Amino acid sequence: MGIETLNLRKNVWWMCMMAWVFLFSSCSVEDDLTPSGDEYLSLTFTKTLSRADLSQEGAGSFSEGDCIGLYVAYEGNISYRELTLTGGEWYPRLKRSEFGKGRLTLSAHYPVLPESSRISPESSSFSVASVQSGAGKEASDLLFAQTVLEEGNYQSALIFNHALHRLKIQLQNASEDVEVFVRSKVDGNVNLLTGETSLHTEEYQWITPQRNTDGSLEAVIYPQEAFPYREGDGLLKIVTQGKESFFKAPEKLSDGTMLSNFEAGKQVTVRLTLKEGDIQWANRKVWVYGITPPDEKEWKNFFPQSFTSYALQWKKEYGWFDCNKLNPSAQPGGIPDGMMCWAATASNLLHWWIAQNKRYIDLYGEKYQGPDYTYPSGKKQESNIFQCFIDSFADEAGKGDEGVNWFIHGVIPPSQPMDTPQNPAGYFKDVFPEGVRLGTNVGGLGKEVFNKTIKDALSNKKAIGLSVGPIYKGHVVTMWGAEFDENGDVSYIYMADNNDRNSFEVLDIGCYRYQISYERYPEGATYTCYKTGFINSDKPITINRLVLLDLGEKYWKNYLGLE
To answer: Where are the beta strands (DSSP E) in 297-451?
Structure first.
């Protein structure tokens, strides 16, 4: 993705000599047409391009029949005129004496707005078209020019500028059937005396941009903040082969500066390379099924002196869970959960699983004999499910997928040193046929396998855990969502770490936004890591395995006779 900012000016220069018209004339030289006893306002210009042609810099001119709205401010009064380009000249001609002898401020706009929308020139209603091909683009591309004529002066030059912003989209590897839409607020007000604009609605619409002969697309939008277009549906929607992809507004311009606003009179160019098969993932933020995405403003850098990464405080309405160990440092003699990161992660996945299957579990009724799954529990250990693991297993390392399979299916974890847990569990084993395991794991996480697995999980209603760090001394955490780059590859993950209770309990931090990096072995193969953003040492931490939990909906429906 590349972005560039271009000044957009309608370079209309006024070079012809002494043509006695008020605003614009042809480029031919005329004889003195000033009637005796009065003088007309005069302006000369050079006509360069037709109105239909617009260069990348925004240069162009007016065509026969174009009409310009003009406000003349003089001696505390404001007078409105409309001038039409006829035969290469602008009519009607206006006499200087109509506006007194003092200073005149001339404010011109194109196209002319309907009378109903300019009842007050300081706040005229103006909407950009939702379909900007052909006439829609021209009607949306509001131009403004202003000049001052001092007392006794009859000549001046006006240069028209674009009052709004132009967004240009360049696609690489785009198929013929690709459709592009621009998301924006379209209704606002224009001050026709100053050229300033303002929005008066919070509603967004999808704009169909104009397609240029070179294959690029462009749309005129209101000047506005860029931040809202980095959340929700983003800035662009691309539809190909019946699939929709959403692209957020870029964070930086091509010169490295932050894109904070879509500025009046300027252009932002977005360049996208569409990777076959991954377009539906490019530049998206995707949470695990059932999670309510937080407002982007909720993400905060709580420790700017130490970390560049952002974090999210836990809120019940989000729908994700953050079971934490009470003994995260695993000190000897402490609460016997210091080594049970696998069980905390399994508990997170199970809380999510129960929440998404709540309809079926309610029908299951009293057959469920497991721990109360209210979260938070109101106790020091906020999860009764996690407490069930603590009461049933020795404080030893384990695997997250084995934990969920023990709880749901009653399968004894083979990695546990204890052959027989204190609790047989299997609280839903009657629902699922013999041999079915909803908990699985995937290793060998090169870039391709990692991305394929994550996309499959997010597309098929699966929760995700991560086994990270050294293989034999690692850590198991929960992943609640991911961000994808312009190529459709995972670039950031949203992680809940069960070791953070003691460190950040006061702040109630529950989820971190960590950058993904794809490292290479000496022989060339890739492996997937994440970075914490720790300023003093941000070494990549290996992601060894993915822990996945399927909802098992088809088995529920079959068991309850709902199909």
So the answer is: 310-313, 439-442
Copy the structure tokens of residue 312. 């999210």
Contact 291, 285 (CB under 8 A): no
- CATH superfamily membership of 285-560: Cysteine proteinases (3.90.70.10)
pLDDT per residue as tens digits for the range 227-241: 999 887 889 998 887
Boundaries of CATH 3.90.70.10 in the chain?
Answer: 285-560
Residues 6+ away with beta carbon under 8 Å from 320: 287, 288, 291, 314, 348, 352, 478, 480, 496, 510, 511
Q: What are phi and psi of 11, to 5 degrees?
A: -70, 80
Round to whole Å and give the CA distance between 250 and 248: 6
Q: What are residue 522's phi and psi, to 5 degrees? A: -55, -35
Cβ-contact 124, 10 below 8 angstroms: no
Mean pLDDT of the 128-150 span: 91
Q: How far is CA 325 from the centre of its chain?
A: 35
> If you average pLDDT over every residue of the chain, what do you get?
86
Single-letter residue type at 199: L
- Structural contact between residues 218 and 210, judged by C-beta atoms closer than 8 angstroms: yes
Q: What's the pLDDT at 502?
A: 56
Whether the per-residue pLDDT at 174 is higher than 80: the answer is no
Give the least confident one: 10-24, 58-72, 118-132: 10-24
Fold of 5-273: Immunoglobulin-like (2.60.40)
What residue ranges of the chain are covered by domains with CATH 2.60.40.2670? 5-273
pTM: 0.59
For residues 498 and 325, give the distance between their C-alpha atoms in angstroms, rounded to a whole number: 6
Closest to 40 in 3D by CA, of 86, 87, 83: 83
- Over its C-alpha atoms, the chain yields an Rg (Å, rounded) of 33
Cα separation, 168 vs 214, in Å, equals 12
Q: Tell me the backbone φ, ψ of residue 399, rounded to 5 degrees.
A: -125, 140
pLDDT of 517 strictly over 90? yes
Are the beta carbons of 195 and 158 closer than 8 angstroms? no
